[in-house]
Known about the structure:
It is built from ten helices and nine strands. The protein has 287 residues and is of the alpha/beta class. The strands form two sheets. Strands 1-4-3-2-5-6 form a six-stranded parallel beta sheet, sandwiched between helices. Strands 7-8-9 form a three-stranded antiparallel beta sheet. Helix 3 links the parallel strand 3 (56-61) and strand 4. Helix 6 (130-144) packs across helix 7. The longest helix has 15 residues, at 130-144. The protein is globular. The relative contact order is 0.13. Adenosine monophosphate binds next to helix 2 and strand 5. Adenosine monophosphate (AMP) binds next to helix 2 and strand 5.
Amino acid sequence: VDDSPPLRWIHSIDEIRGLVNAARGRGERVGLVPTMGALHDGHRSLLVRARGENDLVVATLFVNPLQFAPGEDFHRYPRTEQQDGELCAAVGVNAIFAPSVETMYPPASCTRVQVTGLEDRLCGRSRPGHFVGVATVVLKLFNIVPADVAYFGLKDFQQAKIIERMVADLNLPIAIRLCPTVREADGLAMSSRNRYLTVDERAQAVALYQSLQLARSLVAGGERSAERIRDRMRRTIESRPLARIDYVELVDPQTLEAAPEVTGPTVAAVAVRFGGARLIDNELLVP
Ligand code: AMP
C-alpha cells in the first residue's frame, strides 16, 4: 500500500506560506524546486535530490512572463500540468505551488531585482531584461515559500550564478544547491524547449554538446587559447546546416567575464537557435 501523503496543488500565497511555516515550526527541513513546468528528467533530478534531503518538498510551477521579452515564446511555452503533477507525485513531492500571473504580479507591482554585471552578458545580451525577470521571480518565490534550501540546475549556468549572487548580496536565509545537467542519450541537454525541435533539428542539436566535448578534449590536449577553442567549437556547430549560433563563449565561472586563456577553471557556454528553439548548454573546463 502507498501510505505517502497525497500531492497538494496550491494556488494561493497564504496557503503555501502557511504550509511551509507550519512544517518549519515542527522543526522540519523544507526544500524548494522552482520550475516553469513541462517537467522532464532534468527537473526530476532536482526533485529527487530535494526529496532525499528534506522533510517537505515544494515544487513551484510558474511560467514567468517577466523573463520573456515581447516576441519570445511565453504564449507557446509548453504547459503540461497533468503530467507535471504525475511526475511530482511519483517523486514524492508534497506540494506544487502554481500561482496565476495576477497572483504574482498584481497590476500595481513594479519592483525589479537586477544583479548588475552578471545579468547583461551571455544570454542577457540577446535576451535583454531576461535575468531581471528571473531574479525578481526567484526572490518573490523565496519570500512566498520560506524554504531552507532551493535547488537549481547547472544547465542554466548564468541563472545559477545570478541567483547565488543575489542570495549572498541580499543576505537571504536560504541555501542554494546546484545540480548537474541531465542529458539525452546522445548528449543533448534536456530542456522543455526541446519539444519545439523538428526531427531534423533534433538530430542536429547534438552539436551543442559535441562542441563542448571538443572544448574539453582540446583543453585536455594542452590548448589554452580561448580564441582557438571557440573557433573550433563554432566550426563544429556551423557544420550543422540548421544551426544559427547566438554565442560561443569561454568565461570565468564567477564573474562570467570572457577568459582569454584557459589557465584555471573556465566555463564554455553556447547558445544556438534551431528553427523556433533557442538552446543553451555549458561545460566546465579544467586545465
Ligand atoms: P525551467 O523549468 O526550465 O525554468 O527549469 C527549472 C530548473 O530545472 C532550473 O533550475 C533549471 O536549471 C533546471 N533544469 C532544466 N533543465 C535541466 C537539465 N537538463 N538538467 C538539470 N537541471 C535542469
